[in-house]
Automatic annotation (TrEMBL):
<feature type="domain" description="DUF4399">
    <location>
        <begin position="200"/>
        <end position="271"/>
    </location>
</feature>
<keyword id="KW-0732">Signal</keyword>
<dbReference type="InterPro" id="IPR025512">
    <property type="entry name" value="DUF4399"/>
</dbReference>
<dbReference type="Pfam" id="PF14347">
    <property type="entry name" value="DUF4399"/>
</dbReference>
<feature type="signal peptide">
    <location>
        <begin position="1"/>
        <end position="26"/>
    </location>
</feature>
<protein>
    <submittedName>
        <fullName>DUF4399 domain-containing protein</fullName>
    </submittedName>
</protein>
<feature type="domain" description="DUF4399">
    <location>
        <begin position="79"/>
        <end position="166"/>
    </location>
</feature>
Length: 279
């Protein structure tokens, strides 16, 4: 196994946490709030459309944009998600929430009671980042996500390991050029026809997602606007959730995902409206 890593990985990860002050845009309605954490340290959202379906498993990390065995050139963007659990920055303890770590060519720790180390094979995303720019040398790498608390002590929440092959390191591509601040809906896609309940996967690029207990201007949370046959609804994910299962009444909806700054409660980034048909 090739274990080459680069000195710049930690710097690149830090670049992703940089945020600008949000522009004065939309104030956040406070009509929907999250409920207290439920079992397994999982918080559920109070809005009646947000459900935890029977098919949902225990919380798990996952990599959203790469597949096992993929060949690629560096630098490249690695995106990661989390189901049934919220994100929070490490500035203070938040029950039932954590932050991502990327393990490069490392197995899961033998002792889950000790903090994860800080080096180029354990990348920490303590501000609530959902992606990283990796600038790896050519070689084969095993990648795995692992969630930990504010003290970097891991939960039993991790992704399957995937192996990728870096075929070339492109000196002409500046890693920072791959950073694009914004939010996106990974699922559903525009024009999709879905059955209830359906999965909503949210992603933030160059922005930090955190439980609203963290009132930091460098942190924010998702909210989903849904305009349907019976009016408009706002689904706030105040616990730092990046994924949800939603069960609205059947009909045609317009969806928009927004990023809400935790300190100012202003919307700084949002997606275009997209159409969704719910059966």
């Amino acid at each position: 196994m090739n274990t080459h890593t680069t000195r710049g990985l930690s710097l690149l990860a830090a670049l992703l946490s940089l945020t600008t002050a949000p522009s004065a845009q939309t104030s956040v309605p406070s009509s929907h709030a999250d409920s207290a954490p439920a079992g397994h340290g999982v918080a559920t959202d109070a809005h009646p459309w947000v459900v935890v379906p029977m098919q949902a498993r225990d919380p798990v990390n996952y990599i959203t944009n790469l597949r096992d065995g993929q060949k690629l050139e560096s630098p490249f963007v690695l995106k990661f998600g989390l189901t049934r659990q919220g994100l929070a920055s490490i500035s203070e303890e938040v029950q039932g929430a954590g932050h991502h770590h990327l393990l490069i060519n490392r197995d899961l720790p033998l002792d889950f009671t000790k903090p994860l180390p800080f080096n180029d094979q354990y990348l920490h995303f303590g501000k609530g980042q959902m992606e990283a720019v990796l600038n790896l040398k050519p070689g084969t790498y095993r990648l795995r996500m692992l969630l930990a608390n504010h003290k970097h002590i891991p939960y039993f929440i991790y992704s399957p390991a995937i192996t990728v092959q870096v075929t070339q390191q492109r000196a002409s591509v500046k890693p920072e050029s791959l950073l694009r601040k914004g939010v996106s809906l990974l699922t559903p896609q525009p024009g999709d026809v879905v059955k209830r309940p359906f999965r909503v996967q949210m992603h933030a690029s160059g922005l930090n997602i955190s439980h609203t207990q963290i009132r930091d201007k460098a942190s924010g949370h998702f909210q989903l606007l849904m305009k349907g046959p019976n009016g408009a609804e706002t689904l706030d994910f105040n616990h730092g959730h990046t994924e949800a299962w939603v069960k609205p009444p059947a009909g045609t909806y317009q969806l928009r995902l927004q990023y809400v700054n935790n300190a100012t409660l202003q919307v700084s980034h949002e997606t275009p409206w997209q159409t969704l048909t719910v059966q």
